[in-house]
Every structure is written in C-alpha cells, then in structure tokens.
Design brief:
This protein has 3 helices and 11 strands; from the N terminus they run ααββββββββββαβ. The chain has 220 residues and is α+β, with helices and mostly antiparallel strands. The radius of gyration is 30 Å and the shape is globular.
C-alpha cells in the first residue's frame, strides 16, 4: 500500500516543479516585454482655444488651422471642411480647403478666368498663387490656390467656396442685399483664415525617416 502512495506523492512534486519552472515562464516573460510603441503617421493637436495643428509625417508637412474646421485625410489629400457661420442669413453652400501632395512639377489647372496671380513669401518658403472667380446661372464660385515645390514633390493648398444668389432662396430687396453682404463676409473670413493656414505651412520629416518623395503616389 505504501508504494502507490509514494508514487503519487512523487508525481505531485514533479508536477509542481514543472508548473513553477516551466509553465509559469510564459506569462512572466510577457510581462517583462517592453510595450509596443508606434507613432501615428498624422496627428492633430490643440495649439490654443482657436487654433489646432495638423501634422502628417508621411506626406511631410504640417499646418495650423482654426479648430472649428473639420479634418479628413485620404492617401495624398487632406481636406478641411469649413463650417458656415449661422449668425446671419446667407446662401453659402460650400467652404472647403485642401492640401494635396503629388509627385512631379507643380502646375495650376488650365483656366481662363484668373482673377489674381502672385507670389507669397512666408519665412524661407515661397508660394505661387492664383485666384479665380466665376458666376454661372446664379451660382458664384471663388477659388484660391497656392503651390510650393520641394524636389520632385508638389504641395498644392486650395480654398474653394460656392454661393447661391439670394434670389434662388427667394430673398428680395433689402433682405437680399443683407444676404449678399453676409455671403461676402463669410467667404472673405474663411479665405483669410486659409491664407493664414498657408503661412503656417512647414515641412516635417517623413515616417520612419523616409523622404516624402518616396511615399507620395506618382502623378498619373
């Protein structure tokens, strides 16, 4: 009777030793592993109550923009949707800014209705600029575009607005005049905020030390 009891005791001791020195190593080893850290490719941080900073390491740039703007990013385009001021009656349909990054030489789209063409300097950076305005069947369009070249990468920063005529919303007389003035003030305010965003433009290091010329898609 004693022999089976001895065998059972030995097996219990062996099992305890295996669990302690072998089976318990996995969790202990995992606890000692350093945490996995991966920096985001793009990030938005609050600069002040009114401004935020957007940085995209993969596309190689950063800008500061009004915090109330909504940011969305795709492969090579970052879009800033600008909310319309609801304080007064207006017929502004669209306010939007974009930063597009492409390979190749900078070139503005071929247009015949250029309102203004100039160059803007901000620090050590120099931007080419064109603005366009047009009216078609009671709808007013205004666009402003800046471009800057870095090696074989082109950065294009654009602002666009679409505004319907007051008459399309049945505004008449002095009310229509007030709506027209509101539209102008809203678009001009957004345009000035866009210009300030362009002036804040800066280059940043690409993801994991990559040059942005290697990560942006080739222009087709």
């Amino acid at each position: 009777m004693k022999k089976p009891i001895v065998i059972i005791i030995v097996l219990i001791i062996l099992g305890t030793l295996v669990w302690y020195f072998g089976g318990n190593k996995g969790p202990a080893a995992e606890e000692n592993l350093p945490p996995s850290v991966s920096a985001p490719v793009s990030e938005t941080t609050k600069v002040s109550d009114k401004l935020s900073s957007y940085k995209n390491e993969e596309l190689g740039f950063s800008v500061k923009y009004p915090s109330i703007w909504e940011v969305g990013a795709s492969e090579a385009v970052v879009t800033f949707v600008i909310p319309t001021d609801k304080a007064g009656a207006n017929t502004v349909r669209k306010l939007e800014s974009k930063v597009a990054v492409t390979s190749g030489k900078c070139a503005f789209p071929p247009v015949t209705t250029i309102k203004e063409r100039s160059t803007m300097t901000s620090g050590a950076l120099s931007f080419s600029m064109i603005s366009m305005s047009n009216s078609v069947q009671g709808t007013n369009y205004f666009d402003r575009m800046y471009s800057i070249q870095k090696e074989n990468v082109c950065y294009t920063l654009s602002f666009s607005s679409i505004t319907s005529s007051p008459a399309s919303k049945n505004y008449k007389g002095s009310e229509a005049t007030q709506v027209t003035n509101n539209n102008k003030a809203i678009v001009e305010s957004a345009d000035q905020a866009f210009i300030a965003m362009v002036k804040s433009f800066a280059y940043v290091t690409g993801a994991e030390g990559k040059d942005e010329t290697q990560v942006v898609p080739t222009k087709k």
